[in-house]
């Protein structure tokens, strides 16, 4: 592998600021150079827009702000100030907006946030059926189309059209794309895509992985020791602590499949059919939602899509190895019981919204299940669109990584 020569030597990198007019010569003192690691720490705390401007100051600043250690530190700091990502379908385009995510409130309160647009330029054919984000990078794809699956960074505007998945055509039963999910391994700092293909016949599902690195963008087969079935859409997949979770069947049992992104090994957690599936019906594909509950896998149980719910039922994994779940039931106030469920923040607040294609002013309700407090946040920034569809992703972190 050929190594590119660094534009600046790594040893004793520093930067010196001089001001010839602020003080007279008799009192002016040279503060000395700023160590590069201190400079990186200072810059990593700035907003993303400031970083974009500073890249244009000089080649040296551009080099500093593209260093891997700066990108990693900026991501770490960004994770402490999560945002809300809004993906807006309007006027035949796919637009990305974000706003600060409100922190936990101790009492009922109302506020207003302005969603600012990421000025990225994506092609009009960009798929807009299913979305997922991991560490600031996004996977966009359309369940009904095999073309145009895209991996992108909303804040840099970069996107990568994924290579076509290889399928076996050696039998009469042609394989079809079933699901595709995004996960990351924080140890190796790698992003990986898991693709599952199946056929209408009772043939085993095949699994392929693509590592999102410049020299590894090829699908490769991985082995799975379980015969999972019923793997349809993957709009409800979620990655928690480098494990990608999604729902499936194993024989006659409903399960959550666990794919370890680092080791590329499969496992599963049984879902208690009497307690969970029994209450929502055998075909639970529309009755459960997976999300992150304070670092643990959680299922939100839905009883009837059209019913106004007066409570929310959560099933939280307590011991994955022994398939142990705990049930949590909370009452819901009338204010939010008729709203659309969005998800839960890392701080444990449920989030509800006005309906995504409602032309009226858009808002989010943050309801704390334990304190029983609700914060309504009016979201401004979408008023120019008479017709729009808004998709919401919580706990979004800005990542300066280039694809």
From TrEMBL:
SUPFAM superfamilies: F-box domain. Residues 34-74 form the F-box domain. InterPro entries: F-box-assoc_dom_typ3, F-box-assoc_interact_dom, F-box-like_dom_sf, F-box_dom. CDD domains: F-box_AtFBW1-like. This is F-box domain-containing protein. It comes from Microthlaspi erraticum.
């Amino acid at each position: 592998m050929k190594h590119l020569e660094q534009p600046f030597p790594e040893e004793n990198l520093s930067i010196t600021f001089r001001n010839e007019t602020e003080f007279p010569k008799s009192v002016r003192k040279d503060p000395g150079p700023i160590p590069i690691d201190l400079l990186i720490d200072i810059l990593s705390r700035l907003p993303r827009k400031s970083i974009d401007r500073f890249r244009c100051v000089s080649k040296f600043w551009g080099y500093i702000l593209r260093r891997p250690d700066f990108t990693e530190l900026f991501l770490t700091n960004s994770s402490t100030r999560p945002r809300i990502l809004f993906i807006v379908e309007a006027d035949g385009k796919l637009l990305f907006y974000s706003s600060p995510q409100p922190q936990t409130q101790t009492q009922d309160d109302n506020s207003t946030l302005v969603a600012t647009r990421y000025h990225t330029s994506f092609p009009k054919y960009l798929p807009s059926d299913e979305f997922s984000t991991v560490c600031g990078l996004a996977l966009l794809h359309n369940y009904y189309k095999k073309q145009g699956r895209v991996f992108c960074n909303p804040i840099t505007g970069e996107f990568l059209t994924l290579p076509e998945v290889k399928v076996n055509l050696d039998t009469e039963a042609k394989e079809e794309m079933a699901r595709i999910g995004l996960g990351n391994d924080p140890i190796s700092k790698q992003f990986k895509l898991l693709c599952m293909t199946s056929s209408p016949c009772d043939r085993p599902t095949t699994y392929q992985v693509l590592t999102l690195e410049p020299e590894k963008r090829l699908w490769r087969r991985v082995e799975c020791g379980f015969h999972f079935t019923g793997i349809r859409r993957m709009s409800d997949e979620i990655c928690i602590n480098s494990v990608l979770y999604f729902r499936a069947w194993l024989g006659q049992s409903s399960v959550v499949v666990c794919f370890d992104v680092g080791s590329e090994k499969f496992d599963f957690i049984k879902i208690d059919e009497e307690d969970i599936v029994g209450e929502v019906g055998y075909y639970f594909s529309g009755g459960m939602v997976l999300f992150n509950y304070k670092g643990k896998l959680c299922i939100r149980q839905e009883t009837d899509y059209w019913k106004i719910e007066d409570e929310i039922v959560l099933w939280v994994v307590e011991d994955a190895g022994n398939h142990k779940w705990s049930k949590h039931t909370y009452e819901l106030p009338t204010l939010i019981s008729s709203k659309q469920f969005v998800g839960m923040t890392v701080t444990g607040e449920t989030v509800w919204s006005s309906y995504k294609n409602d032309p009226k002013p858009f808002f989010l309700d943050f309801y704390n299940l334990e304190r029983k407090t609700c914060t309504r946040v009016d979201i401004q920034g979408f008023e120019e669109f008479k017709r729009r569809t808004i998709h919401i992703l919580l706990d979004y972190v800005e990542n300066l990584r280039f694809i």
